[in-house]
Amino acid sequence: MEEGALGVARFLQLLVLPVSVIGITIGLITAIRFLLRNPRTYYDGGLVERVAVGLCGGVAALGLLGLVESFRTVRPDFPPLAAAFTVAILFCGLPAILWKSRWRVVAEGIATISISVAAILSGFSIGFLFVPVVALMIWVCFARLRAAYRSRTVAEAASSQDANG
After folding, report:
1. Among 105, 95, 101, which residue's Cα sits nearest to residue 141?
2. pTM of the model
3. Half-sphere exposure (Cβ direction) of 52: Cα atoms closer than 13 Å
4. What is the Cα–Cα distance from 55 to 110, expressed in whole angstroms?
5. Considering the domain boundaries, does residue 3 fall inside one?
6. Which of 42, 55, 70, 94 is deepest in the core (most CB within 10 A)?
7. Which backbone phi and psi does 24 adopt, to 5 degrees?
């Protein structure tokens, strides 16, 4: 039983860097694309999106709890990497905060970047625990990009049919 759990942990540990780099790339593309021009399409990510955003919100809530506890015990002397990790963890909650706004997709891209950065920064300690959340956020961002591409190609096809005939 323990060997199986250790095998899964080792496998996830190997995936931290590649999955995080892909997450940073996809999150950056998603955030920039939807920040610059917001398409008129509505894509409901369904259960996967709700679970991914809920997990990111939970991670951010735990990060906020740790930050409050750190200040409460009068130890606010963060090393630079710990401060960067804290900021990355807190930015994971953006999609949950902006769930009903038009900036939700941009927030999902930013959260994908931030959870990927947090996985890299925590590296060999708890970074492997972030890999499934990063994978879920990559899925959500990729589905958003695919839906925007499909709606754009449908609109272009409709406009070319109107022009032709």
Report:
1. 105
2. 0.85
3. 26
4. 15
5. no
6. 94
7. -65, -45
